[in-house]
Prior knowledge:
Blueprint: H1 2-9, H2 18-47, H3 49-53, H4 57-63, H5 77-100, H6 105-126, H7 132-153, H8 162-216, H9 222-225
Helix pairs in contact: 1-2, 1-5, 2-5, 5-6, 6-7, 7-8
Amino acid sequence: MLFSMVNFNELDSSSTLSSVQINNWIGGFFGAAYLLGSATLLGYVCKNVRRHENGDPDFDARYGAFLEGTRRKREYRCAVLLLPTSFLLKRLLLCVSLVFMQDFFWGQVASQLFFTTYMIILHQGGRPIAGTIDRNMEIFNEVATLLVLYLLMYFSDFNHDDDLRYDLGYAYIVVVSLFAAVHLLFLLIETCKGGRLVCKRYYNRCCRKPQEIVKKAPLQTPQTVE
Length: 226
């Protein structure tokens, strides 16, 4: 979507070059496909959200990516549907602000601050995510984004104090490093869990089965031999 909007921004309908015309058609096609495809799929998911609440395996296999990890109770339906809708709108607004608002820094920051704060309220009030750890991680991500956006303001023309910019640079590094460290920690934990399961399967397949066969094999007595 981002590259499609870049093509829209560089659109030149007056050019007679074939390469420019092809680029215009490609940008228009992929931009329309993204918007219409996302809206169609999201509308279908919202219409058939009851199948998700009932645990329909066919629905989860096809459209489970939209509602993955969310609650299946009816009282959380509104918050559950707002989660993928807000995610798509936030990414769409980010693409629009990066391409069409390059000279309007405050509009870029304000739009992202609005959606980031809104996502924190949604996760805290609506609680669409089922798992406590997953919900807390989503809140952590949004809070880290909020801190980065606030610190980013001090590196703009709003602040003319170079010493303050230099000092706040350390805070920016700390926030980003903490964000990366937490995610790397969880990635390492999941990797260790996967490696543990692989080792356990290998042990059961190569070491445990021969012992069970020996134990289960009947003892041959003189009577059984005869």
